[in-house]
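User: We ran a pulldown and think these components assemble together. Before we commit to crystallization trials, I'd like a predicted model of the whole complex to look at. Sequences follow.
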Amino acid sequence: MMKKVTFVLFALLLTVTGANAQFSETMKRSEVHGSFEFDGYYYLPDNTLGITDSSINGGNFAFNGFGNIIYTLGRFSAGLSYQAYLPPISGYDSQLEGQGIPYMWAKYTGEKFTFTVGNFYEQFGIGLTLRAYEEWTLGYDNSINGARVTYEPVKGLMLKGVYGVQRYYWEKWKPNTRGIVKGFDAEVDFNQVIKSMENSKFKLSIGGSAVSKYQAEDPSSKYKLPRNVSNVGGRINMGIGNFIVYSEYAWKVNDPSAVNNYIYKDGEALVVTLSYSTKGFGFFGMFKRLDNMSYRSDREVTSNALDINFLPPNTEIHNYMLTAMYPYSTQPNGEIGFQLQLNYKIPRKSKLGGKYGMGISVNYSQVNNIVRNPPNDSTPVGELKWEKYTMGWSSPFFKFGKPVFWQDFNIRINKKFSKKFKATFMYMYQTYDKWVNQQHVERDTMVYANIGVVDMTYKFTSKSALRWELQGFWSQQEYGSWAAMLLEYTISPHWFFSFTDQFNYSNPATHEKIHYYNFSFGYTLRTTRIAFTYGRQREGIVCVGGVCRPVPASDGFTLTITSSF
Amino acid sequence: MKKITTLLFLIIGSLFFFAACEIIDPPYKIEKPDHGDTIPDTILVKRVLVEDYTGHNCPNCPAAAEKAEDLKDFYGPQIIVMAVHAGYFAKPVPDDPLFSNDFRTPAGNAWNSFFNITSYPSGMINRIPDDQGNYIISPGNWGLTVDAELKKDAEAKITVQNDFSSGTRLLRTTVTTEFLAPQDVAFNLVVCITQDSIIGGQIFTTHVEENYVFMNVLRGTLNGDWGEDVSGGLDIVADEKYEKTYSIVFPAEWVAKHCHVVAFIYNTDTYSILQVEEKGVIK
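Assistant: Here's a predicted model for the assembly, 848 residues in total across the polymer chains.
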């Protein structure tokens, strides 16, 4: 008996030791990575901005935060994202309020296959048929919850398939609510697939995708609604010497929705870009046309959610305070536009270039409405208004409509004067249809503005520098003219201190001539950054990639902590 | 070659599978049966309350109001709509005569806050929660929930009798509730006034409508935000008639000929509405 017990104990010990060794080995091969961001806001009453204790109504605190964790073990990886909006910072969609784990996934990467289950992001081409992505600064997340498979049978040929439902804030999917998305994409890179083209100067890849959504019919609808709506696209990417041409076209079948006012017209989108670059010179041109291309997994949703595809902007994205005051918002129901950009570096030791050379860039972009003609003899159509439950409009493909939604001409000069001092000078002329871009309701709200920026940096030592910006925004429309300045002192690699002020000095209403000042400082230690800000936020609009959210005016303290490991 | 052919089949097959679509040919309108305007008092049917939380500054709200009217058209008088103006978009705009209307009510504010409605338009269908306890339903899903709710049998009958004096502007309304089966939970009765055809400013996604016609606007309740116990605290028994009478003097801005009494009973444990009835103040 004693022998038996000893044997069992010995066997158990061996098993535990073996398991322990295996566990230690697994742990050694495992990797865990993560990133965190916490944005806390404390709102203060501000009579100048019309914010009172009663309008805050006890809601002084707001918090947006996330934590991403990714675990990897060889070919296997898994991850999750915790998110909290308690409540969301003002300007974020109130439907975000809540906390939990909206994003969880597991993935196996084989030699030719990858399998993902749970939540995932994906993009076909530039996204005209499908793009699932997340943009934290907008509070936007249209990730797909389902399954994703990729297959690369030969190097250079990639096949992808996705199937699932999209995230809609915190709302769990139920049958007969938002739709189910399925998509397939194939891309061939001929320079990899065909051996003789491996070293060719001519680069070619082509791709195609097909996406479909299924949403149950609303039994109370007085109109026939398609349950399955597909969106198919093709793309080509060619490189010849220093030239690169990319083109993508997508076509969507009848998709009546709240966004397009329930019309049965097909949709189409075309994006063509051409770029050329050589030492000291670069050119970029882009043409884009969208016609009824909103494509969402719920035909009734109009907020920033449930987009299946992505419609990229053809306008330059500006970062200076006053050049970014009126950002462009993509018009999915129809727009036609182009962008041209030239970059030139005046060589060193030339008359204009001086000791360090000088960079010049010129950019022009314009977006117009498409031309809308009546789809038949009996259905009227306006520039931005059309009849429900009809074919909507017909539109000649390359014709520019009269209303200009956006125009931006800007020229920028980058000049280094000495080892310690450099500057950027920028002039911009902007035309902006506020009504269209921000869904503001007053018509005739065109804003024309001349904007100037001087951005200078002086390095005191290799670790400390002062950057200051002076900006002017001159306009007769809406809020009138603005002046802005920034002072930012950096002590690398840890500290920064900054002060900004935007002054609406010529607002037609005297009580609206407001200084929007901000003080902030921050500390960075390796991958962790803590920043503290006090000041006013002016009312405006924030856009990323043509997707926008309004930001109401506010006053208060902000604490931001970001970290990764 | 065999490999390439297989791949081609795979790609083309996938394209067909993933590109499923339906082309809709005109006419787009579906001819629906006419349900008539009224259902005789003698016929007991399940009725559904569609609460549309809205505001005159909410650009997407007119589409939701239209959706509610579509439901009424489709299902007929079994649908009762109540437009509850509450929250951020319902605030009157100072110094703007077009948006000076204040359609908010204490009851609407209380419900808006209790059910945590923060985005508009939103709605509730008979205040039925989903599996996760959410009462709020976006307008796109109203139809499906209404359809499911109407498939249930009626479990109670409400009768409303109104007596309005145009001279004194006094409304006296008598609400009689009768359950088909005994109930082991308490039910509260809420009696509301709604008004149609109020003209005012409304923001749309594309423009401002200066003479927008507001329909089914909740004007107030006659017995508090949450009503009162329908049986006076006694056990509810089958076929017993529970009668309540309320009176109110109409304020000047309430136009009696456009007003309705909406009475509903709800389970005080779940807040879900068992039955609802609507009757014009003036026949």
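Chain A touches chain B through 55 residues (CB under 8 Å). That may be worth checking against your pulldown data before setting up trials.

User: Thanks, that helps.
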